[in-house]
């Protein structure tokens, strides 16, 4: 018994799973592993943990499920610990969300444990996964197809809150502990049902692999741990790469620089794409290797404008040198009405930015004005001005040219992404387009040596990113 306690304490200390005095929710199903977990945590008296026993009744096995709930409630009472129990209709959740029973049960459990942890102010939720579970999970994900992220399997700590102190123990060590302590536990009949892939791996595949290596479960668990260490390094690399390639990240999506992406190794690009989808949608559910390859094909394509949908309702749009990841339900900013500028002042723009108008002395050097500023001869461009978004057919007589040019052609020349074209303000005076903000000013309204009154216009974006 002392050996088991020492191993769990050393593992918990190595991975900083607990701090003395922590409130910890213990997930107890009533089965062998979770009963052992509860008993071991109680025995680690030096940690002085305040334990809360939590049990979710999945309502899948009728009277047997109800018996499990009563057993866990009685176990908590016998140890003088608070008990939090709840029933969930996992089968209905499975049908409603189109999930397997296993996935639906997992979602229901984690949501329940989160609620209990919040209710009791718990820092951690302890789960009873052990080394053999680790091996089974690695094989399960290998059979379904996974990279390093998936094959690294279960980490000692997940999502900051969920901890797995028994990953250092094998199933046989846990069974020996239960026998030595004389602990009773419940047997879940569904664990023998080989209709579930995990059960087939446990009862059929691993026994077959034992013929090749008697220590197969332990070796697979070590492999998963080594992959988890590599995963930490790769995630750090991906974080830095995302910072290098991201042009913008807001509540509306993520914009990445194509040239920057193409400088990154292929494996790093793949991780950046996954990050971008997760940031845009909040989940990676349904995203497979096939979709990642499609995104990479879009990035590497010589075509400047492409669009593909990916699972989760995310649209990936390539527009010249930028790739935008955007949730399908997020509406773009539109010019619903024309903005009337009566004279000097500060006027709000639809994207949250503003247009500032001042009457000033002519600047010494008009050529050096940044793209977000422009000067006009007020006699040639009198107020009121009308500011609106781009419409097909809009034309301007650009400064220095004798004829007119389509605004659409200007956008194409400047490689302005289609989604951003509608956000560029167009300024009109006397129905003549005098400024495509950030790109071209009109020849007729230019400042000359004969100009008496000069007006300076400036566009300030909400993001602080330059117009061009």
UniProtKB/TrEMBL annotation:
| Notes on the domains | The N-terminal region contains the highly conserved SGGXDS motif, predicted to be a P-loop motif involved in ATP binding.
Gene3D superfamilies with a match to the protein in the record: 1.20.59.20, HUPs
One GO cellular component term: cytoplasm
Residues covered by the Lysidine-tRNA(Ile) synthetase C-terminal domain: 385-456
Name the Pfam families for this protein: ATP_bind_3, TilS_C
Tell me the protein family, please: Belongs to the tRNA(Ile)-lysidine synthase family.
**Main site of residence?**
cytoplasm
Per the record, the gene is tilS
Asked if Nucleotide-binding is a keyword of the record, the answer is yes
Q: What is its EC class?
A: ligase
Provide the alphabetized UniProt keywords: ATP-binding, Cytoplasm, Ligase, Nucleotide-binding, tRNA processing
Top-level taxon: Bacteria
Q: Which reaction does it catalyse?
A: cytidine(34) in tRNA(Ile2) + L-lysine + ATP = lysidine(34) in tRNA(Ile2) + AMP + diphosphate + H(+)
This protein is called what? tRNA(Ile)-lysidine synthase
Q: Does the keyword tRNA processing apply?
A: yes
Supply the NCBIfam families for this chain.
lysidine_TilS_C, lysidine_TilS_N
| The protein's Enzyme Commission number | 6.3.4.19
What is the annotated role of this protein in its UniProt record?
Ligates lysine onto the cytidine present at position 34 of the AUA codon-specific tRNA(Ile) that contains the anticodon CAU, in an ATP-dependent manner. Cytidine is converted to lysidine, thus changing the amino acid specificity of the tRNA from methionine to isoleucine.
**Gene Ontology terms: biological process:** tRNA modification
Q: Where in the cell is it found?
A: Cytoplasm
Q: What are the binding positions for ATP in this chain?
A: 29-34
**Signal peptide location in the record?**
none
Q: Which SUPFAM superfamilies match?
A: Adenine nucleotide alpha hydrolases-like, MesJ substrate recognition domain-like, PheT/TilS domain
Q: Which GO terms describe its molecular function?
A: ATP binding; tRNA(Ile)-lysidine synthase activity
